[in-house]
């Protein structure tokens, strides 16, 4: 029954429960009764103090409150909800390295584990807000990063776990990775944003010999549009090339993510490179040189668009057989035999329209000194020659036409030469290796 507030017999305010007929009720006076004796006043003062306490309790009830143990609808006391909220989760979250750690290794250290519970959330970010990818184990007991961390970087870790009762426990941590004293980078070809021929691999040369090749290769991600399987192959310990099984499809867009920052390429030597490189595959041009017929058929999309007379390596200086990729274009250059370990055989200035096919010095180039050799006999020291003029000023000669219609990454195939097949690592010529060996 709701209490009410009313006036007493002498106009004094009182607040208390309503009483029914025949029920006893004692009015509570707030103030003293006028005309009472000192003794009476003292006795009433004592009663008044008790009454004030009753009054305050009743006024509280009038304000819509109630006893902390009473339910809102006046029924049985509510359960002690505070006890459940204050009970701690049994789950224990552990983050390594410890909070505040410095000079942390970039791999093999970061980890999160949970005991007496399962991890439900792990978030790791660097000081620029970039997330570190990782995965929680199937049983929820641990989390590991998917890749290495960057060097000289501060990371924040936030991890949450739940116990069997669904209660959560959370931990936060921060640490900083090491600053390496020795580093390496990879120089690459082709250039970012370039358009190249269908034979162009993505080739990386490292400034230090790599003794942890799997870790380095894992940090180089190649994606293509349309999608095609691309695999890497190591030549020695300082070069890593990527290519598909067959020549690229015309128009393919290739993106390479170099995530080498923090990769330990060899003991104590870390990568410091974080870069994205993109290039596009242009029209499909493959040219076939026949060292016996002394011709070169230039094909686009498998159709011959031009046949040009050539001269290849003379006996003893035969041109390599095999698939070779144009890696460099020089409008005019100087060719000296001493640079390719042939002594003083030749020193030719103003060589026009030169395009490199091998690291060892094989070019397909314009030739202004060959006389009537083109289409008739082989006369070079291993290069493929096309008729030209000194300095390359004449755009109508065969060498000028081929130079203008070629791009880096185009393929030149030589067949019917008396020399062996060019080595896959002599230039960008990995196409001379089977797909099975390339992937091995």
TrEMBL record:
The keyword Transmembrane helix applies. Residues 1-30, 64-90 are annotated as: Disordered. Residues 78-90 have a biased composition (Low complexity). The active site is at 365 (proton donor/acceptor), 383 (nucleophile). Signal peptide: none annotated. InterPro entries: Big_10 (IPR041280), LD-transpeptidase (IPR050979), LD_TPept_cat_dom (IPR005490), Transpep_catalytic_dom (IPR038063). The keyword Transferase applies. The chain crosses the membrane at residues 47-66. It comes from the Bacteria. Pathway: Cell wall biogenesis; peptidoglycan biosynthesis. Keywords: Acyltransferase, Cell shape, Cell wall biogenesis/degradation, Membrane, Peptidoglycan synthesis, Transferase, Transmembrane, Transmembrane helix. Residues 285-415 form the L,D-TPase catalytic domain. Pfam families: Big_10, YkuD. This is L,D-transpeptidase family protein. It comes from Streptomyces actuosus.
